[in-house]
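As described in the Methods, two query proteins were run sequentially through the folding procedure within a single session, without resetting any intermediate state between them. The first query and its resulting structure tokens are shown here.
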Amino acid sequence: MEDIALSFPDIRNTVGNIPVEWYKDFPHIGYNLDGKKIYKPIRNKDELDDFLDKMENPEYWRTVHDKQTGSDIVLSDDQVELVNRLERGLKISDVMIHPITNRPADKRSFIPSLTEKEKVSKLVHAIKMGWLKPRRVEDDGRGRYYDLWASEDSSILARHRMHLPAPKIPLPGHHESYNPPPEYLFTDEERALWEQQDPGDRKLPFVPRKYSSLRQVPAFSHFIHERFERCLDLYLCPRQRKMRVNVNPEDLIPQLPKPKDLQPFPTTQSLVYRGHSGLVRSISVSPSGQWLASGSDDGSVRFWEVCSSRCMKMVQVGGAVKSVAWNPNPSVCLLAVALDSVVLILSPSLADKQVILSSERLLSAQQEGEEPAEGNGSVVWSEAEGEELNQGVRLKIQHPKAVHQVVWHAKGDYLASVMPDNTSHLQVYIHQLSRRRSQNPFSRNKGLVQCVSFHPIRPYFFVATQRSIRIYNLVKQEMTKKLQANSKWISSMAVHPGGDHVICGSYDCKLSWFDLDLSTKPYKMLRHHKKAVRGVAYHRLYPLFASASDDGSVIVCHGTVYNDLLQNPLIVPVKVLRGHVMTHDLGVLDVTFHPTQPWVFSSGADATIRLFT
């Protein structure tokens, strides 16, 4: 009775056994015992809700939907067991009180089957004749352990299709003999070369020796070490062959456009500017592109006419020039020169009268009665006098330490100078030319500053140390980003005219391209140079950048930057320019582009400047 009660529960709907589809268009589903309508429950579950309920509800597997009442019913354990027994086809009741039939058993249920007897006799005959072999029950210990390095024709190892045989020791040759022929003995040069090589690069792990008799041969000193290495070879040998993927090497090379489709870019050497007698460490081109300034270790600054390679003017500054930088403002004609601990502001007067007057007006823009400002008592501004004034020197900015680099802001009023020194925080100064003021923007510097640069558009300031580049917001006076160059020692840096990309060269032959919107790590690492990279430069108008190295070459690359942030920059090396002569293991020291033409200038340790067009 319990099973019957489980299978026929109390039904509240009294409409009887009629199709439920009849109530499909009605708001109710039937009537209860009182004759009142049983309304359909609001069921707003879709497939997604049903899936979430399946994942989160632990009782979901035993929940069924009752169509007559429209509700969800959770089955009990007894009901679930009853459903499982029905699915397995088992009888509902274990004990039958009344049998289904009283028919007596047949006679054939007591007599062996003749058909089965015939089948068994055939199997016995097949076993006797050897046609059928019964299954052999193997011992548990057999087949579980086997010799891994046995011969490959064994039945156990034959099952491993990818079995790899053990490596065998090569047979001894004439070198191992105690009395080898003379041609197998090392000479003094071969022995010295063998001792300089790494153990892994040597063809022989020992030096062949000659003895008159076998009794004089001593014990082998590396015997235990060689036995140990042999055991490692057997122990660490791979047990299985791995199929190597056959890849065409040409498919791994990215599809880059051809260099001839990326023209114009400099290809040939057109002019050589000769006149310096020492290393030409720095060069700079005027904003108009008509004049070229160069600073050398011979203590002179020369001004060249670009088209004719003629030296228009020479200024003796009395010390090795570390850096020169032309003011980028086309309305003035000024040059900043760094030597020793002084930064000179020169007015070469290589322009029309209006530009020269604007330059003089900028230098004399200090208000009357205002004393020259001194930056923290360590930077002193002074005006040139006497012979220096006649040569074009207008201002002198005295620094506490040796200055290695000067760089201008895009508007031409601010100037930054770098003094690399680990012992002091006074490594970077920013000078305002119109007010003759200097300030140290950093209370302390994290690392040895190598070079700095202004952002061409925004008020950002780039500071390159030995291993990283820090970007500072000059308005908010805070650091906004830190770029990891993944180089041992950064040597130079250049900012893209758009301001969103930076390249830096390093002394470990690397050139790193940074995408400031993408990551703080290099987007691309170029290792085309064989020696230290001394200088890098972007072109102001064309999608070109160049790098100069101590290997005597200048590599020009095409670098297209897209406005679409989802499209990566296109970087293609297009030309290797050579012409400088290696001097004292130094090659090309500086590189810069012409402001309007696809030309590149390079200065080298051979005291020359070369123009490639």
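Immediately afterward, the second query was submitted; its sequence and tokens are:
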Amino acid sequence: MMINEAEDEEKWLAEGIAGIQHNAFYMHRALDSNNLREALKYSAQMLSELRTSKLSPHKYYDLYMRAFDELRKLEIFFKDEGKHGVSVVDLYELVQHAGNILPRLYLLCTVGSVYIKSKEAPAKEVLKDLVEMCHAVQHPLRGLFVRSYLAQISRDKLPDIGSEYEGDDGTVMDAVEFVLQNFTEMNKLWVRMQHQGPGRVREKQEKERNELRDLVGKNLHVLSQIEGVDLEMYKETVLPRVLEQVVNCKDDLSQYYLMDCIIQVFPDEYHLQTLETLLGACPQLQPTVDIKTVLSRLMDRLSNYAASSADVLPEFLQVEAFGKLSNAIGKVIETQVDMPAVGAITLYVSLLTFTLRVHPDRLDYVDLVLGACVKKLSNIPKLDDSRATKQVVALLSAPLEKYNDIVTALTLSNYPRVMDHLDNGTNKVMAMVIIQSIMKNNTCISTADKLDEDDFKDEQNSVARLIHMLYNNEPEEMLKIICTVRKHTMAGGPKRLPFTVPSLVFSALRLVRQLQGQEGDIVGEEVPATPKKIFQLLTQIIEDLSTVPSPELALRLSLQCAEAANDGDLEHVAYEFFTQAFVLYEEEIADSKAQVTAIHLIVGTLQRMNVFGVENRDTLTHKATGYSARLLKKPDQCRAVYACSHLFWVDDQDGVKDGERVLLCLKRALRIANAAQQMANVARGSSGPVTLFVEILNKYLYFFEKGNQQITGAAIQGLIELINTEKQSDSATPDSASDAFLASTMRYIQFQRQKGGIMGEKFESIKL
């Protein structure tokens, strides 16, 4: 069913893109002939493709970007009154006669941008007109994107301090009012998406809603960039209006994301001076909002602000930051009656961390935090939640780490009272921590949040080292040792396996390499030691590890085994381990960063393999390139895809030099890099640095040097021109690192040109 839905969506997207391309073709003809009415007719038909309700947000975004590119060309045409012969005032009236509301609004926003630029009407009036007319689109997805387009075309035309539109065209307050109104309506549309569809469909829509959050959040980013929003305006207008919308929407996804946005985009000084207002909203949030993370991030920002300069510390005292944070945490814990103990203790750990950074000399504040924790734990004689216990250990360890003086920590009256709530085992851990602090002459413990794990990790690392010490020159006896160790290791439980299994695997691989070249079973031996037998054992061990779960480690070990099988010329075994790695990647590894690391490990290992025949290598290579192109972030996609080009050109393998497929990989990477630039331009108003293009250029140069006939000097020269064009565009973001990287690359090309010989002649074809 899911496959059919995906196929249908791809078909609908293709139809929409075809409709845009068809009408854009006739629109361009009309633009070239300066025929305004025909241009408006076909542009409206083109924009009607955005009325679809059949696409997911991800696919709708692809369709929107196609239309967005065409609207930029249409805007250029509208700016030149000499071409179409209609004043911008009349043009603004004319586009309001478009048949359907959605195309009409996109055209109005496009003409409105030109209208503001012409200054024939005050910017504030045009902006107010546009933001109110967008009320006509109440479909959540379509409404979000049309308002996102309005935000995009207006961000450089707001009547801000120092802008050309300030004065009679409007004031900073007009700019703020426009952005706030657009933000409010976009959030309402975003929240309404949660009410569409029950059960499994609703879960899918929550995921899709999460993909759209940046469309709403970028309004807050625009607000933070308005020069005229000083502390007074932020305190009196911006923050109250934003928080009003956050609280009233009563949606946990929206509330969590927007609170985090507020904390991240506005200055630290503003947070400090409006602390009471910001914290006052926290108890009003939905009980399901992860408020402890929100507050922890706020306290981290304020702590870093305090650490940035001693001059700002009096401000913390002036606004009574500690008292306000302490009261807010108390109210949140009191309001959210179902909050588990671990959540409350986590909040107190964050507050204590803040206190030790901002007020290290106030032992009374430290004791107050510990006392609040004691009060929360008063109904729990002994903690039996391991996560809560871990947080209590972190709470008690923080003063030891800060003061490097056990006597100071033990003078806190609530310190032993917190320890009373620990079970016997954890009390022993804390006792050892205190004793070690004394015996190590006040040595600071560097990882307070993992103190309860230290002894366990030391123990398991010792076991792992012991496994490496178990060795016998006789293969059969060594295999018996490995089997015995495996039996005891697997009985150790899931927590121990990630520490001990790698040592067991590498001991087995050492035996495999010792036996390389040996074929068949050893006659007369009770446990024949052959590479195939050991690889069967390794497969079982890694499968056990993958159920812990520890999929990233299981994948790494699978690839190590595949390399060992490659060295032993065991194609079938190597293929099975690669299959195991791909299954782990597809079914178990969900974190996007872990996926990026995993795909690069897979590609790097596959490149080094020389055991596979054409069919098996093609199958694995196809899988690797497919997964690379489906990574979450465009830059990660781009880097993984161009890394796959090395799978088709390996110097030490005569049969693997497919220049055409190398070029296909690099071209695909280039398309992805271009899409990443466009997405950055839509999301942030700037296309970002050209780093990805320069990285791809270096890949082109590598294969050019290696003799790939498909990579020509003309192609490299075209890529250099593309990079220079991107750098010079209005939306480019200056980046010294990218510039240095490009300059270094150009120096290398020049060096090769001047070098002479065959390589020098090749590089002469690149015209700089």
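The chain is about 75% helix and 0% strand. We note this only descriptively and draw no conclusion about the first query from it.
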